[in-house]
User: What shape does this take?
Amino acid sequence: MIELEYFFDGKSGLVEVYQLIRFAAEEPWKIVLDGELLGSLENLHGTWRQLSGEQLSSELFDGITSHINDQYFNSLPQAICSRWPNLVEKVVLKSDTTYMVICKTGISFKDFERIFTRFVPYLLKEEWSIEFQVFNHDFSDDFSLKAKPLIYKNETFGWEKVNR
Assistant: This one.
C-alpha cells in the first residue's frame, strides 16, 4: 500500500489535505478528503484519467497527478535498470518500500547479489529502508535485502549566520 498526502489551496483560501492511497501497484489511486472517498485515478500508459467520483477541477487533477509522478518510488525501478542494464530484466514496484527485481538469463546470480547489495544503497534517496526481493531469471534462486540509503540530505536547524 502507498499513501501520500497532497496539500491543496482550496476555494476559500484554506489548505485542504488530500490522502492519495493505492492498495496495490496495479490498482488505481483513491482520493480521500476528510475521510470521504472522492474518486479514483489511474495512469494508463503515461496518461492520467479519472475513473470515478465527481469531476475534479483541472487545477486539483493536475496537482494530484503531478504530485504522484514526482514521487521517488516511480523512478527507482528505472534507476536500477539503467544502472545494471545487462543484469536486470525488470523491477516491479510492490509498494513504496518494497520492490521485486528479476535478473536476466546467463548472469552469475551470486556475483550480482554481491554487487547489488553493495551498491544499491547509493541509489536510494528516501530516508527510510527499502526492501528488495531479487530473483534469478527462472525464479529458482533468490535473495532478500533491506537497504538503507547511505546519503542523507543536509539539514540545518536554527539561525544561519549571514555574511554581509
Summary: The radius of gyration is 20 Å. The chain has a mean pLDDT of 87. The chain is about 20% helix and 40% strand. The beta strands are 2-9, 15-22, 29-33, 36-44, 47-53, 88-95, 98-103, 130-135, 142-147.
